[in-house]
Amino acid sequence: MSLAPAQVHTIKSTVIVLQEHGNAITARFYKSMLTQSPELKSLQSSESEEQPPGTITNVGRMNLSKLDKERDLFLGNEAAEYHTCGSESFRMDMKKSLRTYGGDGGRIKLELYGTGGLPRG
């Protein structure tokens, strides 16, 4: 799937903003998310301490073993689907965990992404 010219323009016009403010935007996102939903912090694999300058990710991955298999993952619901998006290792970890807990492989969807063929110039 190729990008429309308007999409290419939007991406190019925001790159400079992300280069300059990406860390601050990401830090604000995590702070807001964890302030509004503090229960999410306990789902991480490891607790994060103060992040060093330039760090744009929160330490720790979602740890599915900390979730209730029925209440949170709906493993008994045949209509439930699991969509994961992130790095390849993250997607594979989530798929492996879901299958370990009884998630049907056909209900686990892995979202692949990349910058692909963005025109340069």
UniProtKB/TrEMBL annotation:
GO terms for molecular function: FAD binding; heme binding; metal ion binding; nitric oxide dioxygenase NAD(P)H activity; oxygen binding. Keywords: Heme, Iron, Metal-binding. Residues 38-60 are annotated as: Disordered. One of its GO terms (biological process) is nitric oxide catabolic process. It comes from the Eukaryota. This is Uncharacterized protein. It comes from Cryomyces minteri.
